[in-house]
Amino acid sequence: MTSPKNEDELPIFIKWHDFLTWLFLTTEKFPKKARFTLSERLNNLGLDMIEDLVEAKYSKDKWKLLQRANLRLEKIRVLLRIAFEQKFLAMAGYKHAMYLLNEIGSMIGGWMRQQAKTR
Length: 119
Prior knowledge:
- The protein has 119 residues and is mainly alpha-helical.
- It is built from 4 helices and no strands.
């Protein structure tokens, strides 16, 4: 599922929206024992990430915000690996998530390289 396209929207926002949609649908299926811990933490990190990206879009000092977003991305990777290891997430879902997160990580990395040139 793709989000409605806005011509002013950066591709990373569209990708992250798609990932969040997948994440919310996936974590609501986690067992009850994980819903108020792992699910909530993943969802909160996902929402924090979109806030970082929005702030970076409009900030003059994008570098620090992009570093923070990159760190959150890594935390999400680790938590999804734990969810997979605990069998809350199937192999196909884990692979899908890692593929999306790698794409988004590359986009953040490109944005960071662009900012490094202007520093």
